[in-house]
Amino acid sequence: MTAPLTLLKKDFFPSPQQAVAVADRYPQNVFAEHTHDFCELVLVWRGNGLHILNDRPYRITRGDLFYIRAEDKHAYTSVNDLVLQNIIYCPERLRLNVDWAAHIPGLNDASGAPHWRIGSSGMAPVRQAIARLEQECAREFSDGGDMTELLFAQLVLTLHRHRYATDNLAATESEALLDKLLTALAGSLNRPFALDAFCAAQECSERALRQQFRQQTGMSINHYLRQQRICHAQYLLRHTEMLIGEVAMQCGFEDSNYFSVVFNREVGMTPGQWRHRHKNVA
User: Fold this and answer.
1) Number of domains in the chain
2) Which CATH number do you get for residue 260?
3) In order along the chain (282 residues), what is the average pLDDT of each group of 10 residues?
4) How far apart (Å, rounded) are the C-alpha atoms in residues 247 and 14?
5) Claim to verify: residue 85 and residue 196 sit in the same structural domain
6) C-alpha to C-alpha distance for 107 and 34, rounded to whole angstroms
7) What is the residue range of 263's domain?
8) What is the reported pTM?
9) In terms of Cα–Cα distance, which of 67, 198, 2 is closest to 58?
10) In angstroms, rounded to a whole number, what is the distance separating the alpha carbons of residues 88 and 21?
11) Are residues 132 and 175 in the same domain?
């Protein structure tokens, strides 16, 4: 198997002392599997795509946040108007007395959760923090980069304040309607989701919500949920010994034959074929 491409500090940081840089992706195109010799924060602002992180697929869209370690491997496929920002950084170059590991999941611990979400209330302050950081990164380092690190610390703390686990519905009680819907969908991978019941509970227009969802994500609600279920199925097929019928049930499909049809249509092979191919990849 071909080793993934490694992105190097020397190609992304103007000087060997610079600890932080901002890389915009407007839009993010398909990007083959790669690693880095630096770390990365990834924030998704709009559109959708498939993010493969350490062989696990994530269907990503507005509000998704990832903490990527240097040793992680990841790729972007099936992108559709995907707009994101990468904040890249070198932990060994950070000099300020900040407990970075307390606010950056997985920085010194491989078990740290890499995938989070940012609610609507957090998106504006996060954008502002990144804009200030980007402006400072473009300056000459007359102050030795201290201001850049201070702004990076502000961003890290802002993300920590506004992030929530993807399946934590309680965390979005005060958030915008779209945040509640995305979280409800993430919690419905193994059971039916009734949009009419959701809209009745939220006292909102189903038509308006469908339009808002498509505008922000580039997908219909049904397509997004189906893609999330297929991503979960791929993970279970590769990392568990569940029977295909059991995987289907865990991913919200009561009929395993229908699951196989949908999986084949979305992935291009049957669940059994996909499992065989990926179980045998080193």
Assistant:
1) 3
2) 1.10.10.60
3) 79 89 75 91 92 91 93 88 92 92 88 88 92 85 75 96 75 69 89 93 92 89 93 91 94 92 92 84 50
4) 48
5) no
6) 19
7) 222-279
8) 0.84
9) 67
10) 5
11) no
